[in-house]
Amino acid sequence: MTDERDMYQTSHLRIVPRRHWGRWIAAGVVCLLLAALVRAFINGKIEWSYVGQFLFSQSILEGLVNTILMTFAAMAVGITLGVIFAIMRISENPVLSTIATGYVWIFRGAPALLQLLLWFNLALVFPKIGIPGLFEWRTVDVMTPFVAAMLALGIQQGAYTSEVVRGGLLSVDAGQYEAARSIGMGQLLMLRRIILPQAMRVILPPIGNELIGMVKTTSLASVIQYSEILHNAQIIYYANTRVLELLLVASFWYLSAVTVLSIGQMYVERYFARGIQRLKAAG
After folding, report:
1. 136 pairs with which residues across the strands?
2. Alpha-carbon distance 128 to 137, whole Å?
3. CA 99, CA 89: separation in Å to the nearest integer?
4. What is the DSSP secondary-structure string of 68-120?
5. In angstroms, rounded to a whole number, what is the distance separating the alpha carbons of residues 203 and 41?
6. Which residue has the higher pLDDT, 198 or 145?
7. How many whole angstroms separate alpha carbon 152 and alpha carbon 159?
8. In a 10 Å sphere around its CB, with 0-12 CB exposed, 13-18 middle and 19+ buried, how is residue 116 labelled?
9. DSSP category for residue 122
10. Which among 76, 49, 81, 74 has a CA at the least distance from the CA of 219?
11. What is the mean pLDDT of residues 213-231?
12. Residue 181: in which H helix or E strand, if any?
């Protein structure tokens, strides 16, 4: 008589891997679409020789330098304002908190292009800027395309960054605040030595994303004649009518800049991830 346990033996069964037909069909459709896209560019009316000719032209490379310069200048303004207004936002002073909330509401709500145009045309409201009787300058001379773009993009970035920093500050355990106050630390000293170093692991990854986004946002400055990549590419294709070729050149350099910054962001995130793991192991 067969043992009842033999009924549940599986050694004689053949293992058949699961067939993911949906995945294969989806992958096939995507590959076909990519092949069609590549074929369209190959057979399209694109003079690839012009792409190679202008890829490393002096005007385009100068635009690349100006794009990188504007990216870091605007981010420096944005991070500085972001930290200041984040601290104001969590302040117990209702006046400072209200001002910070209003700043975020206004500059995060207005489109970046609108702010660029407002700053560039500031001379229509303030013909001169300075301290009357001491020093004054004509606003039209001060508000160059670089200054207008840096202020518009930087101040708007500050509104977004302040929320990122505020989230990082609130992520620190309340016990850290209480411990710092118990040993007599003032508000600024506590933030600088205790709170901000711990909040950086939460703050830095989204700031890295904002930096990458700023590279692309600088292209808006072309409308106020700032000589970044897109603006210089437009000047060239206005002259030779090779619009798509020059747009491909600009796309290549934007993608290259974003790729380099993305790699840097990856290493920064890995560094802080290791720091978190060390803290968990110590705990």
Report:
1. 130
2. 5
3. 8
4. HHHHHHHHHHHHHHHHHHHHHHT-S-HHHHHHHHHHHHHHHHS-HHHHHHHHH
5. 41
6. 145
7. 11
8. buried
9. G
10. 74
11. 94
12. helix 174-182
